[in-house]
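Work Package 3 (structural annotation) set out to generate three-dimensional models for the target panel prioritized at the project kickoff. During this period the team completed the workflow that converts sequence records into C-alpha cells, so that structures can be stored uniformly alongside our sequence database. As a representative example, we reproduce one entry of 277 residues exactly as it appears in the project archive.
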Amino acid sequence: MEIQRFVKNKVSLFGFLLVILALSTAFFAPLIAPYDPLKQNIVKRFAEPSREYLGGTDRFGRDIFSRTVYGSRISLAVGFSATLLGALLGTTLGLIAGYNKGRLSRAIVWLTDVFMSFPTMVLAIIVVVAFGPGTQNVILAIGLAFTPRFIRLARASTLSVSEQVFIEASRATGQPSFGIIRKHILPNIAGDIIVMSTLWIATAIRLEASLSFLGLGTQPPTPSWGNMIREGMLYFMRAPWLSLVPGAGIFLAVIGFNMMGDGMRDVLDPKLRGRLT
C-alpha cells in the first residue's frame, strides 16, 4: 500500500527517478564517461560543448562531462556518508536524551542547543578548518554538523512515544530500558529519521559543494561538483559551461532527494496520506 501511495504522487516519483539517475551515473561512471576525467589535452582547451565533448573542456583540455560524471561519486558518497554519520550519532544521543530524564539528558540537550545556535555551514567550516581539507574530513565535518539536528528530532520523537500506554506496560513488566528502546521506541521513530535523512542528503550534497567551492573540500585534480564550479568561475564569461554543467548535476541531485523525501514523508506520516493525489 505504501509503495502504491508513493507511486501515485507524481512529484515524488519524479524525484525518485532523478535519484536513481544520479546513483546510476555514479555507479557506472567508467562506462558513461567518454574520457578519463584527469586526462589533459592542451590543444583542445576551452573547447565548446559539441558531439566530441558534450560538456566542453576546461583550461587543461579535460572533458567537463566526464569530470561531472566522476564528480557525482564524490558528492553522493559525501552526502550519504555524512548523513549516515550524523543519523547514527544523533539518533543514539537523541534516544538517550528522550528516554533518560536525568542529568545526562539535560547535558545532551544543553550541548545540542549550543551547537544548534550555529548555522550548519558555519559549524561544518569550523570542523574542516580544525581537521584540514579533504574528502574524509568533509564527511566528518558535515556529519558532526548534522548530529545536533538529529538529536533534536530523535529526542522529540522519543518523548512522544515514551508517553504511550504500551511503553508504560513494558516498564511494568520489568523490561530493561535498552530492550524498550530497541524493540519499541526505535522502530516507532525510524520513519521520521529515514525521511529527514533523505532530505538532509540533499543538504549534505550542497554543503560538500560549498566547502569544495571554498577550497576546503575535495582537493584538485580529483573532480567534485564544488571544486569544478570554483575553477569554472574564473573563466565564466569566456567558458560558462565550466560551471553550468556541474551546477546542473548539483541541481538535479538536490531536487531529486528533496522531492523523494517529501513523498516518503507523505507515505510514512498518517496525517498527510490524505493529501496524496
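The mean pLDDT is 87.
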